[in-house]
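User: Here's a chain of 374 residues. Predict its fold as tokens.
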Amino acid sequence: MAINFPSGPTNGQVFINGKVKYVWYTANGYWQALPLATALPFNYIVNPTFEQSQQNLDTGGTTTGYYLADQWFMAHSGWTVTGQRATTAIPTNMNSRYSLFAVNQLAKASLAAGEYMLFQHTLEGQRVLPFMWGSVNGRQLVLRFWVMAPAGTWAVAVRNGINDRSRVFTYVISAGQAGNWVEQVIVIPPDTAGTWVTTIAPGMNIVFSWGVGTTYQTPVGAWAIGNFIGTSTGTNGAAVLSNQFRIADVGLYMDPALTGRAPPWEAPHIHLVDADCHRYFNTADHKVGTISAATNSNVCNSAAMVQMRNGPAQAIVTGATLYDGTVNNAALTVQSAVSSPRGSQINLTGTGLTIGRAAIMLGNTGSITQNARP
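Assistant: Prediction complete.
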């Protein structure tokens, strides 16, 4: 297929066709093809293709704070909505397997001041250290994602970890694009002020919002002091019953050369995704200790698969049992727990156990969750 170059070019004129840049050199009498500069290729998003969903798999949920996939949760106020990791309606041109999906279950013609619905991804402070935000040396970022949404003006917000610095960006889905996958690329100028944590605390929040009330609205195009995730020009996604919202293949890239372009998409290797996700959340299927009473295990230990962000909070998932070599009854409650980033121990209560025997926590249908999310 022929390329339709501009006619009458001047020396040094640039023409971009797809992912190739052409420069006209009058002395040579031809267009020279050059590689098109992009942001750096490393993707700072954890679980950008949603391959890991340890807590809820592909099961739908309705509560605010519900994890659709590892490091990705849905939050809402004043909406009636169901969300999940979806295995259908995905951007096949990217060879993806999953998207994040939410559907509105109750039509609301308008939203009250404090109402909203969003998908959020939180990045640990250490992960965003190279951005150097909060200083004059802050680096520009490029956010790239695929979205399937109704026609309207939708928002993406970037907030610091304590949610007192925000910048809102908008993009438009036309009537012809509605219900189809559309790639979006957003250039994010650095915030040279505010507090951008670079420790293990939450460092940055990336928010995809689908309709927000006035409490969380701010004008686009500037960093603002406060917690904002939308704008007054945004569409109310709750206005129509059964409105659906999906995102897939999210990339966040550092762009020190100020190219404003995302690099070619590359999904991370599943082993890297697993390691990243297990830093923040995992499940222990077996822990070993001793029986200290007929109703207690003592010091059931397990080592972390990777070093976690901090000592995780531990909780029983229904189905976990305590086994003493003869009896295998339900683990009932967490009596006490001690955790560190490298491992954890937990004392559980049960029934019918024999003092002095080995205690094995079995996760045949349940487990112990270990949560160190920022």
